[in-house]
Design a protein that fits this description.
By secondary structure, the chain is α+β, with helices and mostly antiparallel strands. It has 2 domains: about 30 residues; about 50 residues, Hypothetical protein rpa1041 (Alpha-Beta Plaits). The chain contains 3 helices and 3 strands; from the N terminus they run αβαββα. Strands 1-3-2 form a 3-stranded antiparallel beta sheet, with helices on one face. Keywords: Membrane, Transmembrane, Transmembrane helix. This is SPOR domain-containing protein. It comes from Lentzea aerocolonigenes.
Length: about 100
């Protein structure tokens, strides 16, 4: 009788543990990873150029004017900044 009782207790504890883990860990609602490289998260695109050299020139120009900027890794190269810096970046790039 005690062996059956122990087995029931063990399976009961495992069931409760499984439910707790499912509740606290199993609700992963994160987006699917960006496999094609077109999602840049928080960054906003301010320019598209055909060469890496041109993108680097624009990034250096933005950084020299106090705008945090980066570029994408693949052609066509996208120059990107944070949303708060978009207006300043466009103003800098017009000059």
């Amino acid at each position: 009788m005690t062996a059956i009782y122990q087995a029931v207790v063990v399976f009961g504890v495992l069931g409760l543990l499984a439910l707790a883990l499912r509740y606290f860990v199993g609700n992963d609602k994160r987006a699917v990873p960006d496999l094609d490289g077109s999602d840049f998260g928080l960054l906003s695109e301010v320019a598209i150029v055909p060469t890496e050299e041109a993108a680097n020139v624009l990034v250096r120009k933005l950084k020299a004017n106090g705008v945090r900027a980066t570029r994408s890794r693949h052609a066509p190269y996208r120059v990107m900044v944070f949303p708060a810096d978009v207006a300043n970046a466009r103003l800098v790039l017009k000059t």
